[in-house]
Amino acid sequence: MSSSNGPQDEPRTWRFFPYEEPYPNQQAAMSGIADALDDGRNVLLEGATGTGKTISALVPALEHAREHDKTVVITTNVHQQMRQFIEDARAITRSEQIRAVVFRGKSSMCHIEVGFQECQTLRDTTRSLVEKESDKAELASQAETLLDQMREGQQGAADARSAITDELDSLEDEVSEMREGNTCEHYYNNLTQNTDEFFQWLFDDVRTPDEIFKYAGRQKMCGYELLKEGMEGIDLVVCNYHHLLDPMIREQFFRWLGRDPDEVITVFDEAHNIEGVARDHASRALTENTLESAVNELEEVDDSRAESARNVVEAFLTALRESYDEAFGFGEREQVGENWYDLSIAKRGRRDDLTMSFLQSYEGRGIDVEVELALQLGKRLDEQYEDEYKNGESTTRRECQTLQAASFIADWMEMGGELGHHPMLSVRRDSGTEEIYGRAELYTCIPREVTRGLFEEVHASILMSATLRPFDVTEDTLGLPNPVTMAYGLEYPEENRRTFTASLPALFSSERDNPKTQEQIEELLADASRFTPGNTLVFFPSYAEAERHHERLRMRSDIDDELFLDEPGVRAEEARKEFVNKDGAVLLTSLWGTLAEGVSFDGDDARTVVVVGVPYPHLSERMEAVQDAYDRVYKGIKDAGWQYAVEIPTIRKTRQALGRVIRSPDDYGVRILADKRYTRESSSMGKYGVRGAFPVEERAEMVDISPTKLKFAMLNFYNDHDAYGGSPPRP
Q1: How many CB atoms lie within 10 A of CB 426?
Q2: Spatial distance between the Cα atoms of 82 and 269, rounded to a whole number of angstroms
Q3: 18, 86, 442, 724: least surrounded by Cβ within 10 Å?
Q4: Cα end-to-end span (Å), the chain
Q5: CA 671 to CA 497: how far, in whole Å?
Q6: Residue 227: left if φ>0, alpha if ψ -120 to 50, beta else—which one?
Q7: pLDDT single digits (tens) 473-521
Q8: Full DSSP string of 260-292
Q9: 3-class SS at 617?
Q10: Across the beta sheet with 702-705, what order do the strands follow?
Q11: pTM of the model
């Protein structure tokens, strides 16, 4: 255990702790977090897999929130962790009364399956209808009262009733017209029926979005809108990253909570993923199809601004097509498939090829002027489409293509040359027509532009992961000011685990094709499989490498274990279930796939884990752009781009993979790092030697070993744990 700052408190009791007694590390973490929250400081918490990080963060956060009238929002981007959050929240509710909800996006909870804009419009028109019907009922009641007064002979009652009935007739026409327009029956029932029973059911337990969807569906109500309505002032929300990392969604989300940002405590699990997710949220893209649709849309518009809008959109469309035609290398066009294929257009020291082509293609009164006119026209058309849908003149809510195109072009011209915004051009082949079309993208390289605002405005944030170190890099890349940092290793007995660093050749791409090296890898994996009393999990730098060695192992007669190959597109939980239902199986996968983190393998489900090679990410133009941005931002740090963009994310991924074994105090297993870049020998390999990138206590447990001796070391270790049931394999 190590902690870079924050003194440890004396042991104390925690009313929200749902189990008998915290582990010592949990007790220390909870005390440190409680002190940080009292000071309004952020926390970086690294804790080994299976050490109860979620509870360690939730308990002091909920206690602070209860004492200071705040809401805790806990979030992840890993489905397995979402399920764990729900179980932990339910455990807490058994010991302490809290109101908790699990929030999910509208698209997965809509009973009538409409898009975001249509839903917004339907909600507005339905609410207006209910308000008009309420006004109508109120006027009808007044008319009845005046009728009684007329019968009693009260002076002026007849004239007043006549005015009321005239207004009532007019309102009746409005209501009839609105009923002929577009409304949502489910949301209508939310507004007109008694919802007390739903909220009583909702807060009796921690309900999943699927449970809410089914319950509301039976009542012909909208569970999503009911959930939003019930979130105000609650104690705990479980949600996905995008509810916090997207600035526009975050603003709405806090409004639904009925909280100002400084009344919210955020807890991020798997926080090593925030950087990549934030980068994706900040990046913007525009396809050739949207530009074409905008041109077609403008052909039908009778507005003085339409010509200016066409000048801009058509010139950008022309430039986009010319740019990807010119960017293709020899034979490259034929390689384009149904996935986006990046082409290089950026130029150091000047604007990119697409921008230069746009400036050459454009003919008009001035780009800035005509982009502004296009934006104005786009907003006017968008309002028109909204009204048409509300009034029932259109069965769907049209998206304004002109507004989308003009907004993107404005951002492209303003930000395309700024540090951290990398201009990209991608193409793909339409599966129906086989034609190629393009996409322009402003790729965001520096995620703190997105995250810093969040961490500055909320009361405090707790970022937790098994792989957050080095903390200073996390602080820099996410824009966290002076956080409290804590690192806790495995409390489980050290004799229950071994970490072997096998001195295979350094598996650079050229070496991986060497037949002798492939044979060495094959022999090592065969030994790992034969001497593992349970399942073996093997990670490679890519799915292609996993497939290659899966085929080689299939040809061996000395492997009795069933071989599994994880492939792209297969859901992690499905792959895991199929694998763990076997005894003595081997699963080969990519470290950059979905099984390397957030997925549990307990006991014999994965006794041994092997990482073959140093799984650097594919060094694409995007990765090079991120490296360049970090080099320019952190000029005083040697190889900052390589460290921040390549090495550290790679080692974090590797450590996540190693964490798939040793999941409980009684668990035991072997972790194997197969590449000499992990060994002590790597100290002479410069930046490509990665042993020094691991935390010091993890390096201390690494045992260098010859690949041919690995089977003997595994035999001794598992024999010591009586894992073979008295029948060990023969070396």
Answers
A1: 19
A2: 9
A3: 724
A4: 37
A5: 8
A6: alpha
A7: 999 999 998 899 999 877 788 899 999 999 999 999 889 999 999 999 9
A8: -GGGEEEEESSGGGHHHHHHHHH-EEEEHHHHH
A9: coil
A10: 562-565, 585-590, 536-540, 608-612, 669-674, 497-502, 702-705
A11: 0.89
